[in-house]
Amino acid sequence: MVGTGVLSRAWDIAQLGWIAGPAVMLLFSFVGYYTALLLSDCYSTIIPQAGERNSTYMDCVDSILGGAKAKACGILQYMTLFRGAIGCIVQASLSMMAIKYMNCLHESDQENSCYVLGNPYMITFGITEILLSQIPDFDQIWWLSIVAAVMFGIYSLIGIGLGIAQVAASGSLKGSLKVIGVGDATETQKIWSCFQALGNIASAYSFSEILIETQDTIGSAPSEVKTMKKAISLSTVVMTSIYMLCGCMGYAVFGDDTPQNFLISLRFDKPFWLLDIANAAIVISLVGAYQINSQPIFAFVEKKVGQRWPELIAKEVKIPVPGLRQYNMKPFRLVWRTVFVILTTVISMLFPFVFNEILDIISLGFWPLMVYFPVEMYIRQKQIPRWSTKWVSLQMLSMACLVMSIMATVGLIPGLKDDFKDNSPFGMSY
Length: 430
Hints:
- By secondary structure, this protein is mainly α.
- It has one domain (4-422): Amino acid/polyamine transporter I (Up-down Bundle).
- Helices cover 70% and strands 1% of the residues.
- It contains 14 helices and two strands.
- The protein has helices spanning 9-40, 57-64, 67-108, 119-133, 144-170, 187-204, 208-215, 224-254, 272-308, 310-314, 331-350, 354-362, 367-382, 389-422, and strands at residues 317-319, 327-329.
- It has a two-stranded antiparallel ribbon.
- A hairpin with a 7-residue loop joins strand 1 and strand 2 (327-329).
- The radius of gyration is 22 Å and the shape is globular.
- The protein starts with 8 loop residues before the first helix and ends in an 8-residue tail after the last helix.
């Protein structure tokens, strides 16, 4: 649920100010929590106690709302996951580049002598993911979530700690109470930035694209729905607390000059070894996050191919591994997953930021997966009468979120021109 996006919350609060920033974060924490609870109820169709289990988000929509909406959901879900996989490559590469760049500065003390190109790091990350993608049932490995939580704790606490140290040293809190109070940009540019921050915060609480798939990995006792709801409640509280701390401390330190990610922006340059640890933790967490985004796509494609050509999926080649049990290699899995990782890696090198923004605009931001489908499925499943108080309340929630999602999507458009101009293909560098 949580990830390196926590380091961008300071920029989001900077666009909205000290009052609106935390208020918007609390608002979307409630929206994300509530709609996640609605979605978790859809794991079993019609009657949760005796209904059919849906192992994917698309299955839920198909069984409750029908085929046409299921196809739309599938397109949006896998587009979001694909975008997430590309984002993992880009962010991990930026952290690896930051480690190299900061160590170069520490050794040479001359900024002009340090130049770091991102392509080798993206390729290294891609090779790692090719190897990991061949591990059977990677998403079922129990200790992955523990590693992710530990890494998240490391880089979040380092970021918060550095922020507290900076504020204590300066003796003052930077920032503004105004909603539009960042930098020397024009009023129009500030409005776009506010819209973008709105979408960033909303998306930070949108984990619906993997919620059902995650719920399907939970054992049957106690029931998956009860266990998932407890996890959602606890995670939302922890996530909001960390978001608030990182966001507010970052804004207090940098004020109107708050960067998108203060651990790779070089605004903190000492102690460099602590920043190295934080960025290394980011890389490790993103190695697993890439697989979390990719595994549902792998499973979907392999399921569809298996339905049409079962012998192609079932074919195995037994490879003896000295000292270990033999590895059953599936040629289709090897080729398909390798091609997928190569594709995401090449796109990351070509368009490190632009491609994801285009996908976000096409998918209309956070609204469809986070709000629309959970609300519509809940209404249908619980057979809530049209124009009843609850029906009207749910529709008002959905429409309000649609308006905010449109605003956030519009806020991305002006930045596309700058991204095209500032980022040349295969040219991401420090």
